[in-house]
Amino acid sequence: MSREILYISCSYKASIFFMFSRVIFNTMFGFSVNYCMAVITRFLLGFLNGVLGTIKAYACELFPEEHQALGLSVTSTSWGIGLIFGPALGGFLAQVRYSLICSYATCVITS
C-alpha cells in the first residue's frame, strides 16, 4: 500500500493534495460534532498520509547499504514512539491549559 502512495506522491499535484488533505482532515477532526464523524475523518487522515513511505524511501537513499536496516528501524521506532508519547503529551498540555483557564476565570470573577 505504501508503494502505491509513494508512487502517487511523486507527482507534484498529488503531493499538494496530500499536504492539503492533512490540513483539511485535521481541521475536520478537530471540529467533529459526533463520534462517527471523528472516526471517519481520522481514518481518512491516516489513509491519505503518505509521509511514512516517503521517509522510508528517503532513509534508503540517505544511508549506505550496510546501514539501511538501522535507518529504517530508527524511522519505524521513532514513528511508534511518537504514536505513544504524542497523545500523552497532548492530554497533559490540555489539562494544564484547562487549569490555567479556570484559574484565570476565577481571578476575573473574584476581582
Q: What can you tell me about this protein's structure?
A:
With about 110 residues, the chain is mainly α. Helices cover about 85% and strands about 0% of the residues. It contains five helices and no strands. The radius of gyration is 20 Å and the shape is flat. The model has no long low-confidence stretch (mean pLDDT about 75).
Gist?
With 111 residues, this protein is an all-alpha fold. It is built from 5 helices and no strands.
Q: Please, what is the average pLDDT?
A: 75
Residue windows where pLDDT falls under 50 for at least 5 positions? none
Rg over CA atoms: 20 Å
Work out the number of β strands: 0
Instruction: Work out the helicity level.
Output: over 70%
Treating each run of at least 4 consecutive H or I residues as one helix, how many helices? 5
Q: What profile does the largest beta sheet have? A: none
Approximate shape? flat
SS-derived structural category? mainly alpha
Q: SSE layout and pairings?
A:
Blueprint: H1 2-9, H2 12-30, H3 35-47, H4 51-62, H5 68-110
Q: Main attributes?
A:
111 residues, mainly alpha, 5 helices, 0% strand
